[in-house]
Amino acid sequence: MQSASEQSEAARTPAPPAPAEHAYPDHWEADVVLRDGGTARIRPITADDADRLVSFYEQVSDESKYYRFFAPYPRLSAKDVHRFTHHDFVDRVGLAATVGGEFIATVRYDRINAQGLPASAPADEAEVAFLVQDAHQGRGVASALLEHIAAVARERDIRRFAAEVLPANTKMIKVFTDAGYTQKRSFEDGSVRLHLDLEPTDRSLAVQRAREQRAEARSVQRLLTPGSVAVVGAGRAPGGVGRTVLRNLLGAGFTGRVYAVNAALTGETELDGVPAHPSVGAIGEPVDLAVVAVPAERVPEAVADCGEHGVRGLVVLSAGYAESGAAGRERQRELVRQARSYGMRIIGPNAFGIINTADDVRLNASLAPQMPAAGRIGLFTQSGAIGIALLAGLHRRGAGLSSFISAGNRADVSGNDFLQHWYDDPGTDVVLLYLESIGNPRKFTRLARRTAAVKPVVVVKGARHSGSAPPGHRVPVTRIPHATVSALLRQAGVIRVDTVTELVDAGLLLAAQPLPAGPRVAILGNSESLGLLTYDACLTEGLRPLRPLDLTTAAVPADFRDALAAALADETSDAVVVNAIPWVGEDGATEFGDGEVLAASLREAVASAPAPTKPVVVVHVEMGGLAEALAVATSTRPAAAGRGAVTTENRAAGAAAPAGAQTTGSAPGPSAAAPPSPGAVPGAAPSAAPAQSGPPAQTPTQATIPAYPAAERAVRALAEAVRYGQWRRQAADPGRVPEYEDIDEAGAAALIEGVLGGDGVDDRGVTLDAEEAGALLARYGIAVRPTLPAPTPDAAVAAAARLGYPVALKTTAPHLRHRPDLGGVRLDLAAEGQLRTAYAELTEVLGKPEELQPVVQAMVPRGVDTVVRSAIDPAVGAVLSFGLAGAPSELLGDTAHRLVPATDRDAAELVRSLRTAPLLFGWRGSAPVDTPALEELLLRVSRLVDDHPEVVAVSLEPVVVAPRGLSVLGATVRLAPPAPRTDLGPRSLPRY
Q1: How many CB atoms within 10 Å of residue 257?
Q2: How far apart are CA 510 and CA 519, in angstroms?
Q3: Alpha-carbon distance 309 to 286, whole Å?
Q4: Among candidates 861, 885, 882, 862, which has minimal Cα distance to 871?
Q5: pLDDT tens digits, 278-312
Q6: Second label for 186, Cα 20 to 30 Å away, from 72, 443, 695, 892?
Q7: In the 8-state DSSP scheme, what is residue 590?
């Protein structure tokens, strides 16, 4: 019983008159991006949908009807309509994909028993059937509906779908077979019988994410490559936002059609040389993209005009939305709902605009007055002001862009969508992101990790310390500090920088130069002092500088050329920093003239390298002549036959190069030998390259040598490239999650269920007592040393007798817990007399026993006190943390973090990434501790939290790591009902 196709949308439907126990499930509503980049809304079908269903069915071809009902079925009877619109939302469920409020596809399931007859729970199988309008087949609608109906079925305890499909209905068969679920297939009575196990598998999740990537990338591509653009709000008078965007579009040389739209343009037929119309509908031709620049109160009218006439996407420059307060937030919600109801995606509102420098597009639908030079950098910002600064900074440095987006409130299209696009965009080699908030951190981390495996992703995060999201940004609340978020992003391969200047510095190097093979840095130049500054900066950044080569102030450009050529050929270095200062002769004239000779010499040295695999950066101080020469020979395109053009910080500030202008040394041309492109990792196997939908990008004969006005800036950018290159090499072998035979996963699950299923358990969770925590941890091979209460001296003596001397006496009062510096711990008590004396001292100095809550614990082998924690954050998921107990972690914040599940490589890096890690490895003659045992403990805690999402927090403190083995002296475990995992559910856009 089947037919198929794909999509979803946003027409809100009133709840149907259903029994209270089966109320309308509004959480099943979702907006999805389809294969072609458009959007649709998926929602439950209700009794109010009778007319929509009939209209939908009338638009389905006879062939599709035959595939659905296995017989000619020209129209639905009243009984059919009632059956297909009345559901109990448990045993019978129907979902519709809608665009513009009308159905484009439907799916339904009916629970059945083993004989195939209608049934109720506990029957766990259902028959499923689809029908898709012919006009929308091929858009991925059926695949999206299958994901959502499967999630609904799992929620209703249905574990399997059964489907009957005619053999000729190959499209529908493919929808099922390509979904990635475990399935069985048979041929019965002239039809194909399919059974799908609805439990998600690694393959079904991979299929879902691959479809998500293709759909979201396509939705961005539609915005960046329109064939026609309408500027809604372009006025007669010069100036104004709309008129400015119109002129910017024309000035950039946009290759498509441009229209001016304004309700006041009733008499004009032309504005700035392009057709003028009072509405989008009056244009009479297809419009792909609309730039909306009208007051916020008039935006709904403009959106409706666009949606009803087939516009595919919107750039909303209008302000007055969530950034302006509660009324604006509601206005923003309605804007998103309205646009999605028509299948349109939105950049904005309060956006600065978008730019695509590709020669066959040349789109400047932004407020930037001039088109940036074409290049290989993709730039995304959430701030118009920062966007302006970055455009200016990149221009001054001679860098070009592939695309630029300033998304404003990013109510719909976000940085995640552009990561999906840039991942397999052949025109982009480096991704730069300025983010003030991250709407879906789990997804961002996943996408950033995948993208970073093939090209650098550099992020600067604004609003780090404000404690709240900027106005207008809808983001989940996170409880973890900024430093932890930064560590997790670095784990995903993201290059984290602190300022927009560092963003440009790193992006320029990564776009122009290959990645270094290691941390060894050769330094050469004509200033001994500048060489020493560079040397010190390298040590500060954790690099391994070689002794600087001082060419002396008598050096001429030929000396620079020869020294650089030698450094590039020297196998003892992985990167080269060239320092240059002006040399003034006796007559007061600079020996280097205007700098062109030195620039040419540096290019010559780089071009002569047989296999240029080392990055080269230039540090120059007060060399105006050189700066001018470097500013002329600029390009950010990757090298094809050599590298040599140099870009500088000190180009005079000003507008971007005119559209179509080409810089010296950047013309594409053939090459005899192609060196590694920027981002290539020396010594690493090539990463699996994403599929490229377009032709290979042209490459010029020269790439840039980035130049910096300070040694510290050059070295910092180089250090980021070194760390990223190391991550790329390690990403080829990310490690594994070990299996431990002594783990009792079922026993732990039963214990957790027993606690959370008990009477009176708070929905916010419960903290286990010491016995319960020890029992749960023991299921995962984690032994906690027993602790016995000692409310009186006699009880302390009895506890010591049970545990055996020597013992420790500790206070457990909250204000003294884990604070040996306050005197609340007495160690190595070898006999009863010592124990009674210690007990008396504690109670005399610190308080009564009922206040101190003393306990007795057996002594363990001495070692280093550490702390192991794991917590589930609603924004980023489960995080595993490690540090040294006490001041290092609590005062200095010296704690390392990794996302769960951690691999053996993650555990090893956790232990070694602390600043105080030398204490674990024999610092100043001490005995090294048992780090393999520590790494195993970290992995076992990771497994516990990953296997059981109900374990929302674990704290093991202290963990004493000795030269042989370790001891867990204290443990706290908190359980709570797990929050839904949005990253594992069916594809959907953020809800509004």
Answers
A1: 17
A2: 16
A3: 8
A4: 882
A5: 999 999 999 999 999 999 999 999 999 999 999 99
A6: 72
A7: B
Q: Cβ(218)–Cβ(35) under 8 Å? A: yes
The pLDDT assigned to 652 comes to 33
Nearest by Cα to 431 from 394, 401, 386, 474: 401
Q: In sequence order, which residues have a C-beta less than 8 Å from that of residue 950 and are 6 or more positions away? A: 752, 756, 975, 976, 977, 978
Task: Examine residue 349 and say whether the peptide bond preceding it is cis (omega within 30 degrees of 0).
Answer: yes
pLDDT beyond 80 at 71: yes
- Asked if residue 259 lies in contact with residue 228, where contact means CB atoms within 8 angstroms, the answer is yes
pLDDT of residue 584: 60
Judge whether residue 196 has pLDDT over 50: yes
193 strand-pairing partners: 164, 186
Comparing CA positions, the residue from 874, 963, 880 lying closest to residue 926 is 963
Q: Which tokens hold the place of 832?
A: 């009863």
Q: What does the alpha-carbon distance between residue 341 and residue 345 come to, in Å, rounded to a whole number?
A: 10
Burial of 817 (0-12, 13-18, 19+ CB in 10 A): middle
| Mean of pLDDT values over 382-399 | 89
Comparing C-alpha atoms, which of 779, 781, 778 is closest to residue 746?
779
854-858 sheet: strands from edge to edge: 788-789, 854-858, 807-811, 825-829
Q: What are the residues whose beta carbons fall under 8 Å from the beta carbon of 974, sequence distance 6 or more?
A: 765, 766, 767, 768, 951, 952, 953, 954
- What DSSP element (H or E) covers 303? helix 299-308
Report the DSSP pairing between strands 854-858 and 788-789.
antiparallel
H helices of 433-499, where?
Answer: 441-452, 482-491
Q: How far apart are CA 231 and CA 225, in angstroms?
A: 16
∠ CA 557-559-562, rounded to 5°: 110
Torsion of CA 404, 409, 412, 416, to 10 degrees: 50
Q: Is the pLDDT score of 431 beyond 50? A: yes
User: Between 92 and 600, where is the model more confident?
Assistant: 92
Using an 8 Å Cβ cutoff, are 250 and 221 in contact?
A: no
**Residue 432: pLDDT over 90:** yes
pLDDT tens digits along 754-776: 998 876 677 778 999 989 999 99
Residue 898's SS3 state is strand
For 318-373, the three-class secondary structure string (H helix, E strand, C coil) is CCCCHHHCHHHHHHHHHHHHHHHHCCCEEECCCCCEEEECCCCCCEEEECCCCCCC
Cα 462 from chain centroid (whole Å):
16
With contact defined as beta carbons under 8 Å apart, do 153 and 161 qualify?
Answer: yes
Residue 675 to residue 901: CA distance in whole angstroms: 38
Coil, helix or strand for 91? coil
- What is the C-alpha separation between 73 and 75, in angstroms, rounded? 6
The reported pLDDT for the residue numbered 462 is: 75
Omega cis (within 30) before 548: no
> Coil, helix or strand for 403?
strand
Distance in angstroms (rounded) separating the CA atoms of residues 96 and 212? 20
Q: For residue 257, what are the CA distances in angstroms to 358, 361, 366, 434?
A: 16, 11, 16, 31
Phi, psi of 834 (to 5 degrees): -65, -40
Tell me the C-alpha distance between 705 and 511, whole Å: 10
Distance CA 552, CA 545 (A): 19
pLDDT tens-digit series, residues 317-351: 999 999 888 999 999 999 999 999 999 999 999 99
Q: Which two tokens stand for residue 905?
A: 């490589």
